[in-house]
Amino acid sequence: MFFHAHPDDEALLTAGTMAMLAAEGHRVVLVVATAGERGLAAMEPGDELGRTRLEELYESAALLGCARVECLGYGDSGLSPAGGVADERPDNAFIDADTEEAAGRLAAILREEQADLLSIYDPAGGYGHPDHVQVHRVGRRAAEIAGTEIVLEATVNRDPLVKLLRMAGKVYRFPPEFDVRTFESAYSPGETITHRVNVRRFAKQKRASMSAHASQASGGESDRTLAVMLKVPYPLYRLVFGTEWFVRRDVPPGTRLRHPLDPGPK
User: Fold this and answer.
1) Cα separation, 30 vs 227, whole angstroms
2) Number of domains in the chain
3) Are 125 and 136 in contact (CB under 8 A)?
4) What are the tens digits of pLDDT across the range 96-119?
5) pTM for this structure?
6) Taking the CB of residue 86, how many other CB atoms lie within 10 A of it?
7) pLDDT for 152-176, tens place per residue?
8) What is the C-alpha to C-alpha distance for residues 150 and 23, in angstroms, rounded to an integer?
9) Domain that holds residue 126
10) For the chain, which terminus, N or C, has the lower number of CB atoms within 10 Å?
């Protein structure tokens, strides 16, 4: 089971691994906390955007071979720190959800599916979106309740990422909302990563998954991150996006596992 905050998050962080597991015959389940109705897009934020993004999510999931898709139905908390001012958030914002209640709902799906593995985010929520941080908290607790043994934190090796972004910033003007400095403390340092999953064989599925989220490739005054990624020529795309990273906290530091279902050292 892969637990994400919003539609399109699965495409960016775990699509290749999901496609790989589905191709191997595993039942892959995708759960999102929100419909992403407050995301930046050409459409106005609200219910219509949420419905559009869920439709895109189902298309993406089908391309990746997912057997089931669920949305927990919480409100998108928005991008600002801690979800922004409380009165600007929806009444059911995910960031305001009771952790135990939300975890219980997720745990019920884990038990129903008899899931062997739950994928969430690292403690920082990747780049710090409040809903991503909440996914970490809720996911961790849900795994405890359901007794799901393998919990992987989907992340990015920030060491080469920061170097790459600094180099790219010399020749490319990033969108105004994109601050390279935020990545210096985002995601996970290389020494903490336990899984480096080679997903190059599934790069076409990953790219198609990204393309399915058309609403997130537009909006704002400049190119969105997703749109920039989709402009990368396929041979380079396969190289750059051909690895997905995870951290498993219950194995010794320095352990290197090559498959998400590797049981690890005993």
Assistant:
1) 23
2) 1
3) yes
4) 999 999 999 999 999 999 999 999
5) 0.89
6) 11
7) 999 998 887 777 777 766 666 666 6
8) 20
9) 2-245
10) C
